[in-house]
Amino acid sequence: MKIRLSEHFSYKKLLRFTLPSIIMMIFTSIYGVVDGFFVSNYVGKTPFAAVNFIMPFLMILGALGFMFGTGGSALISKTMGEGDMNRANRIFSLLIYVSIACSIVIGILGILFVRPIASALGAEGKMLDQCVVYGRLILIALPAYILQFEFQSFFAAAEKPQLGLVVTVAAGVTNMVLDALLVAVFSFGLAGAAIATAVSQAVGGGISLIYFARKNTSLLKLTKTAFDGRAILKTCANGSSELMTNISMSIVSMLYNAQLMKYAGEDGIAAYGVLMYVNMIFLAAFIGYAVGTAPVIGYHFGAENHLELKSILKKSTAILSICAIGMLALGILLSYPLANIFVGYDKGLMDLTLRAFRIFSFSFLFAGFAIFGSSFFTALNDGLTSALISFLRTMVFQIAAVLILPVIFGIDGIWFSIVAAEVIAAIVTALFVLGKKGKYHYL
Question: What is the pTM (predicted TM-score) of this model?
Fold first, then answer.
């Protein structure tokens, strides 16, 4: 039975509505990890380090999709809650057209400047060449990459989260099959992995674009529109936290790579790459839940249904708490088999990765609260508060921790820094939620 945004959400209904978004984000992360698996095991340690080295730069460019998707979903859901479906579709269409135009320009600039940027970040020799090969091939598909992430939010707002999951699975299966063929069977190396990812992004973004461009049964469809500067600015303000999160995480990853190169060399970067792959999968569950609940929160905020906002916040806190404990347990239990999948061929690298994994897993206890808190304020169209939470979590706290703790604890300080940053971010998020309760009436 189809669940409407306007309904009352019990625990069961909330989980049913958000589950497709959760699976969608996890699956997106898993097929991204597949590149790492094939590159590490079939191409080598240096190419694997190159992928992880250039990936933060690529994520910064792709962050536009998160901004338009989450920020636009919040504005569109609020507009639907106010009862203006025509304006909701005009805003939706405008955001898609603008993001396509922006992504083409950004992609071209990225292709032109990927080599000097990778060099400035510290890549050299063979690793620099591999960064450029992988980066340029991925950037060819940047418009599709941005649309894919954008539509992940819009499918939930359109009351079609299951369809979004189907599209994501199709893209993911495409990536996995092409990785196996191009890297493992035909030995195209790093270029094969990049081509597999680029094609899968074209599938994810292309199918979604075709669906919304045609007559469909969802709440949203691409229509004629007119330029609306206020809607674009509001979308950018709402989505600034997600943009900040992705840019900050990428910048911080570059800093982590620099610190790891200093303390552990290429092995440190490879170990960090394994952690980030697993981190993407685990945090994808929290991100998926946040993406799934955002349209519901935005709708009831627009409809001024404060009782439902209270109910969603209370239920979400309970769900996130249970998931956090489960993820910590999984992180510890799966540390050996997961590390072995990626770097089991090198005992020294395996030992380093295993120790890092067991320390790092404690960050899962706290990360979900800041992720949901930021998304919660985005859905309330409070982009400033959302951006502050994201900026403090992903930029200020992590940079401070990764600069200070390694001086005290050496290489272990780098792994501890992620945990420390998540703890402080969770506390700050709770303070924002308490401080804003009088304005939004969700407590």
Answer: 0.79
pLDDT, tens digit, 9 for 90 and up, residues 62-109:
878 878 888 898 899 999 989 899 999 999 999 999 999 999 999 999
Among 293, 288, 283, residue whose Cα is nearest residue 380: 293
53, 269 in Cβ contact below 8 A? yes
| Ordered alpha helix ranges (H), 39-187 | 45-81, 85-121, 125-140, 142-157, 161-179
Residue 337: Cβ within 10 Å count:
9
The C-alpha atoms of residue 99 and residue 65 are separated, in whole angstroms, by: 7
Beta strands (DSSP E) in 275-343 are none
Task: Give the DSSP letter string of 376-396.
Answer: HHHHTT-HHHHHHHHHIIIII
pLDDT digits (tens, 9 = 90+) for 261-303: 788 777 777 788 778 777 888 888 999 999 899 999 999 999 8
At a CB cut-off of 8 Å and minimum separation 6, what does 369 contact?
317, 320, 324, 425, 426, 429, 430
Of all helices (H) and strands (E), which one includes residue 316? helix 306-333
Nearest to 15 by CA among 285, 401, 202: 285
Q: Count of residues for the chain?
A: 443
Which residues make Cβ contacts (< 8 Å) with residue 307, sequence separation at least 6? none
- The per-residue b/e assignment along 88-99, b for 16 or more CB within 10 angstroms, e otherwise, is bbbbbbbbbebb
Distances (CA, A) of 414 to 258, 284, 404: 11, 22, 9
Determine the angle formed by the axes of helices 411-435 and 364-379, rounding to 10 degrees.
40
List the helix and strand counts (H, then E) for the chain.
17, 0
Give dist(CA 33, CA 176) in Å, integer. Answer: 10
What angle do the packed helices 125-140 and 189-213 form, to 10 degrees? Answer: 20
CA distance linking residue 88 with residue 296, whole number of Å: 15
The pLDDT of residue 69 is: 87
Cα–Cα distance between 81 and 236 in angstroms, integer? 20
State how far the Cα of 15 lies from the Cα of 22, in Å rounded to an integer: 9
Backbone φ and ψ for 381, nearest 5 degrees, come out as 60, 30
